[in-house]
Design brief:
Chain lengths: ~375, ~750, ~180
């Protein structure tokens, strides 16, 4: 076994937390049951890694085996990467072809190899018709760098692919090309949607997040909930706005549904405003407003000498919302009395429009 | 209310001090573990055979072997020793995190880590587990620094070593030798990577004599090169503290934190060590004159408690030569290490050559230094102290922070320390005053209540009208909306405030030379402020009584205040007599509680004395005196006195004022109203009268109160006096000519 | 949906009713719980409202004290109180209304400056109280103070009226904290 493969396996093992070691190794399915049993999990991680490498040497592990281990690792720690979403489309007149996964794999690999010569492409089939692809990039003249691979998750029969963000921007067009050709699509577009949570992204683009919503009658759980909220109150405490509160609850539920929200950690809004013009010179201050109901941003400046006065270039601003669980946070804004219900559609449209990067231009 | 709380506090402290003797089992284990480390030779005989101890013993043995390995390690090939090294390292790590390492062990390991014998990873692991059991010897550090000069260790190891040194600074037993290396450390500032850490170390190490012009120049050069770096600023600010004349650049005054505690890798371990050490020498917290309490450790920035501790403890070696002569000091260092200052005579001897600690906050816990600060009257020293205090108060104030319970307790004990220092000096700190002005408007009246109210009572004397919107209006706001207990506490702390002001004023007046016009305008103004304070409390009291429906409890506190207020002229020798409001007088007079009546009598007696004395004085110094007590005061007092005598003594109440027609009174069934307020029938004394009669004639079936007349009246009076109604006695003796009545 | 008036109904026997108005439900609820826990001679009723006007179809007792709760960490909370203020009869501000600002301590989180509240309260000639409702102890202390004020404004403390308390709480024009 090559020294570099051994080193690669060793480093990969070191990345895995002790508690997940066995699951990962079992999922890898390279070492036999009996070999796994010989491993002593109580020892220090680097000695454990050493013994795993020894076992692999016995079985003469290849680079593709090592790459598979890396994929399994990434599958377990998928939330450690930031995932981009790509949407592909068919050209006019192109019909549904019969899709063959093996054909997809081979043509995908072929395209990349033809272009770069040095590239390691590995596949691992996953649940729900998904295939995980790992690409370690090289160039015509250099060997593939195993330590900075790109991961792609492609769901067969769908136009969506998820890729881990990589620093090698130059390879992205090539990757897109390989994906479109291999999956027999015509065009590929990067969506304005990114998150750490691959499953949430999947739920958003496949519209799986509101499945419960379609089935259940929305008013029934609402009443249960509002009753549940006041269950502990003293009879001496009277909620005056119970009706209004119910209304807020209802609106919130209508917009967000009654199920757990897909998990996103940020949403970003970029505004462009054309150059400022002084409209009413007699007022002491001039103000410029974006009205999006919730995203209300005001710029105020003194008429003379303010930063916005005599501005030639367009005004830009960037608003970023971030939270460990953004959509749940937005959902609780109105019930918590922090914002009016309903919220701005700009905020609530994130799952339905499948984007969390917005560019808004002033008309 | 805080008067009630204080004893509890001290009680707790007392318990805390006693804890070692009660001895929880875990504590004992720790203690003996430390002993093991300190004298490994006889550890076996000392230890009682317990399971825990046994385990420790075994640990010790394994550690011994590991140390031998590290100490006498010949050059072996890397491969072969991998496993053995690993084993020994793990042993050391385990022991270090569990019990800490003995000074000798640390010495050996430091040597190993910095000699570059092993790779970086091993060095890092060793440095990370260098946790002292108690202390670190200075020699080890000096040796370690010498390894730095050899250049065998990598940059990252050097950085880690400096970080370790900073974190462990408190635990190094002496620092004189290390201080001699000041120049070496200073030269290391050149290294861009090391610079922040070296700055921090120098910040901890700098003494006055280390501050030299060339160093200042160097620092300023560095700052010009690297920009305003917080670590450089920190060092510069220390230099500026010591020698303000050398540094003319302005440093940001409001900068709070120069070094981040979060960078401390050994935080949790240090806490454990600290607890171990504190357990060994439990420190009494009371301030007292006499030997200052020296804690074995010095904490600076990475301190757990808010108040820093005085500089290093060299007392272990120095205590032998207690008698040090003056010339020795004059010739040698020029400054007496603070930790050697233990007794008042020492303070007196060395008062010329004391150098205050770089962290002024530490003086709060040291009574001798408080004396010193008080007597040198050095503006800059006070400024340093006030500066530190204001910053710390602002930073630590609980209601400025995300509140948590622990934090609250810590802040409360910090305030307690300040209050102790204030009452020790009998003087308020200006920074506390400013803090109160800033934070009282936001105070919820709950958090650290007793401390805040005590701080109020230590506010330095000031113009009342200026203070009113800043302080007294907010206090009134709280007063009117709070519970009766809170009202009582406010009145009580205002009483203490009045006492403090009066003391200060009376002292001040006698310091000033007596001029021809003794009553200059400033005195007039001062008296006016005091007058307004008393008036303000009178106003609070009147409304408070109304809000609390004439509560006796509150009345006690109010009368306590006026017991101080009525004696301003005689006790404090200040030309002022302010009467209490009529509302208070009447509700005290018509009370149901004999002790209130007794207190009222006492106050009336004192007012009487004061006014008489003032009148007499006025007659004597007629020409000089411009401050004549207004005749209104006399008139009002006389009116109160007449009413009181009329009610209690002559049974002719309210000669003037509202009168009811006899018919009305007949209808109400109180024709006998005239005597119903005298000493026999007064609602608070009725019980005394009855028991007096029962005592006189126990066999009598019916009690005839009206029989107390003439001779019996006198007997009754004696009975009342024998029942501890001293105030009443004084009042009757001074204000009533008894012979004329009986 | 109409203007809230202080004296349009007869008082209930020994009951005192407080109306807490503020956007943050959960905080109001906790404050209400603390108020009911206080030791108070009168029978307390606590009404909670996100905003005014109150729905008119409900029969409710006379409101003796109106407390506007403003969370300094949320501009929205101030705005909603400002809107609610339009639906209050002026006579409420003769001692039967006050402002409660919570969270002034944690300055780094404040999006509303406390002086804004002080000014607002001054405009309405009403007292303003500061506390931190998130903290158990502070909340309990505040609940006690509010219960005290409620008793007075409900007329349950003989000899003291809502108006007289108001005159006591109205401090002279104090200099702002920044001038210090």
């Amino acid at each position: 076994m090559d020294e570099t493969i051994a080193e690669f396996i060793r480093r990969t093992i070191l990345k895995i937390p002790m508690s997940e070691m066995m699951t990962v190794l079992e999922a890898w399915n390279f070492l036999s049951e009996s070999q796994l049993q010989t491993l002593n999990l109580r020892q220090r991680k680097d000695s454990l890694a050493q013994s795993v490498v020894l076992l692999c040497e016995e079985k003469c592990a290849s680079l593709s085996d090592a790459a598979l281990l890396d994929i399994v690792c990434t599958q377990v720690h998928r939330h450690q990467k930031i995932w981009d979403v790509y949407q592909m489309s068919k050209g006019p007149g192109e019909d549904l072809d019969l899709f063959d996964i093996e054909q997809f794999k081979s043509s995908f690999k072929k395209i990349l190899q033809r272009a770069l010569r040095n590239v390691t492409v590995s596949f691992r089939d996953a649940e729900e018709n998904a295939v995980w692809i790992r690409i370690a990039w090289g160039t015509q003249y250099t060997k593939p760098n195993q330590y900075k691979p790109t991961y792609v998750v492609y769901y067969s029969h769908t136009p969506y692919a998820f890729t881990s963000s990589s620093r090698l921007k130059s390879n992205i067009p090539l990757l897109g090309q390989a994906l479109t050709v291999a999956s027999k699509h015509h065009q590929i577009v990067k969506m304005d949607l990114r998150s750490r949570y691959l499953d949430s992204l999947k739920a958003i683009v496949f519209k799986q997040y509101n499945q419960n919503f379609e089935i259940h009658n929305p008013t029934a759980p609402l009443q249960e909930r509002s009753v549940g909220l006041d269950i502990n109150t003293d009879s001496r405490i009277i909620h005056e706005n119970a009706v209004e509160k119910d209304k807020v609850q209802r609106i919130t539920q209508e917009t967000f549904g009654d199920y757990p929200q897909p998990r996103l950690e940020f949403a970003q809004y970029k505004f462009w405003k054309a150059a400022m013009l002084t409209t009413t010179p007699q007022t002491p201050t001039q103000s410029l407003q974006f009205h999006n109901r919730f995203l209300e941003t005001k710029f105020k400046s003194d008429l003379n000498g303010g930063i916005l006065a005599d501005r030639e270039e367009p005004l830009r601003c960037l608003i970023k919302f971030s939270s460990p669980h953004l959509l749940e946070a937005l959902k609780s804004l109105a019930p918590a009395g922090i914002a009016d219900a309903p919220l701005s559609p700009l905020l609530t449209c994130i799952p339905s429009r499948g984007m969390n990067y917005f560019k808004i231009r002033d008309k | 209310m805080h008067a009630v709380m204080m004893p509890q506090k001290t009680g707790k402290n007392y318990q805390a001090q006693n804890r070692p003797s009660q001895g929880s089992s875990s504590y004992q284990t720790n203690l003996s573990a430390c002993e093991v480390k300190q004298k490994p030779s006889d550890s076996k005989e000392n230890n009682p055979m317990q399971d825990d101890e046994h385990a420790d013993d075994q640990d010790g043995d394994v550690l011994q072997i590991a140390m031998e390995y590290f100490e006498k390690d010949p050059i072996r090939s890397l491969r072969s020793k991998d496993k053995i090294l690993e084993k020994h390292l793990i042993t050391v790590e385990n022991v270090a995190w569990k019990n800490g390492l003995a000074p000798e062990t640390i010495d050996i390991l430091l040597n190993v880590a910095l000699s570059g014998r092993f790779g970086n990873a091993v060095n890092t692991r060793i440095l990370k587990c260098l946790i002292p059991a108690t202390l670190i010897s200075e020699d080890s550090v000096v040796k370690a620094v010498s390894w730095l000069c050899v250049g065998k260790c990598s940059g990252s190891t050097k950085v880690l070593f400096y970080r370790w040194l900073i974190a462990m600074f408190d635990f190094i037993d002496h620092k004189e030798q290390i201080n001699l290396l000041y120049g070496f450390f200073f030269a290391s500032l050149q290294d861009d990577v090391l610079c922040p850490y070296v700055c921090h170390l120098l910040y901890l190490l700098t003494k006055k004599e280390n501050v030299k012009p060339f160093r200042v120049r160097k620092l300023l050069d560095l700052q010009a090169k690297m920009g305003m770096q917080p670590h450089l600023q920190a060092l510069l600010s220390v230099y500026k503290f010591f020698v303000p004349t050398l540094i003319s650049v302005s440093l940001p005054v409001r900068k709070k934190i120069y070094f981040k505690n979060s960078e401390n890798l050994w935080k949790t371990a240090l806490l454990a060590v600290r607890q171990r050490n504190q357990g060994l020498c439990p420190e009494p917290r009371k301030l007292m004159l006499g030997p200052a309490n020296i804690r074995p450790l010095k904490r600076k920035w990475n301190s757990h408690s808010i108040i820093p501790v005085l500089n290093s403890s060299s007392h272990t070696t120095e205590c032998g030569k207690k008698e040090m002569n003056l010339s020795e000091y004059l010739s040698s260092s020029g400054s007496l290490p603070l930790e050697q200052l233990q007794r008042f005579p020492q303070l007196l001897e060395n008062i010329h050559c004391l150098e205050l600690p770089s962290q002024m906050g530490s003086v709060l816990n040291n009574s001798l230094l408080l004396h010193y600060i008080n007597c040198i009257r050095d503006e800059s020293v006070l400024l340093r102290l006030y500066h530190w205090l204001s910053q710390t108060l602002q930073e630590e104030c609980v209601w400025y922070k995300v509140n948590n319970y622990e934090n609250g307790k810590e802040f409360a004990s910090f305030l307690d320390t300040i209050i102790r220092a204030e009452s020790f000096l009998h003087e308020g700190f200006y920074s506390c005053e400013a803090f109160l002005y800033k934070s009282l408007p936001l105070w919820d009246g709950f958090c650290c209540r007793s401390q805040v109210l005590q701080l109020v009572s230590w506010i330095p004397f000031n113009n009342f009208s200026e203070m009113k919107p800043l302080l007294f209006d907010h206090l009134a706001h709280l007063f009117f909306t709070s519970t009766i207990y809170f009202k009582c506490s406010i009145i009580e702390s205002l009483k203490e405030l009045l006492q403090n002001w009066l003391l200060w004023l009376s002292k001040d007046i006698h310091v000033k030379p007596v001029t021809d016009s003794p009553l200059d305008t400033s005195l007039c103004e001062s008296m006016n402020s005091v007058f307004k304070l008393v008036h303000y409390v009178g106003w609070l009291s009147t409304i408070g009584m109304r809000l609390e429906s004439n509560s006796t409890f509150l009345m006690h506190f109010i009368l306590d205040f006026f017991e101080t207020a009525c004696d301003i002229y005689l006790i404090y020798n200040l030309p002022l007599v302010v009467l209490f409001p009529r509302a208070i007088f009447y509700s005290a007079l018509f009370t149901l509680d004999a002790s209130i009546l007794n207190q009222l009598c006492y106050i009336m007696h004192r007012y009487h004395k004061n006014l008489t004395a003032a009148k007499k004085n006025e007659l004597i110094q007629k020409a000089k005196s411009k401050l004549s007590f207004s005749s209104k005061t006399y008139k009002e007092f006389n009116c109160c006195l007449t009413t009181m005598v009329g009610c209690l003594w002559t049974s002719k109440p309210f000669k003037k004022g509202i009168r009811f027609s006899p018919e009305t009174l007949e209808k109400l069934g109180v024709e006998e109203h005239k005597r119903s307020l005298n000493l026999v029938y007064h609602s608070s004394l009725l019980g005394y009268a009855v028991s007096f009669l029962l005592q006189e004639t126990p066999e009598e079936k019916t009690i005839n109160l009206s029989s107390i007349q003439g001779k019996k009246w006198n007997l009754y009076l004696d009975y009342l006096f024998s029942e501890e109604l001293q105030g009443l006695k004084l009042f009757i003796e001074s204000c009533i000519r008894r012979s004329s009545v009986s | 949906m109409s203007v809230l008036r202080p004296l349009d109904k007869l008082p209930g026997l020994n009951t005192a009713t407080v109306l807490l108005v503020g956007a943050d439900d959960a905080l109001l609820q906790r404050l209400a719980d603390s108020m009911l826990k206080t030791d108070c001679a009168s029978e307390l009723r606590v009404h909670l409202a996100r905003s005014l006007p109150l729905p008119s179809n409900v029969n409710r007792p006379r409101v003796d004290l109106l407390v506007f709760v403003i969370n300094l960490h949320s501009k929205y909370s101030l705005q909603s109180v400002e809107k609610s203020l339009h639906h209050v009869d002026a006579s409420f501000f003769l001692g039967k209304a006050c402002f409660l600002a919570t969270g002034a301590g944690r300055e780094n989180l404040c999006s509303v400056h406390r002086n804004t509240i002080v000014r607002l309260a001054r405009t309405y000639r009403s007292p303003v109280l500061f506390c931190d409702l998130e903290v158990e102890g502070s909340r309990a202390a505040m609940a006690q103070r509010l219960a005290r004020m409620l008793q007075i404004s409900a007329g349950h403390v003989p000899g003291v009226s809502a108006m007289s308390l108001l005159s006591l709480l109205r401090s002279s024009e104090s200099p702002s904290l920044e001038d210090l």
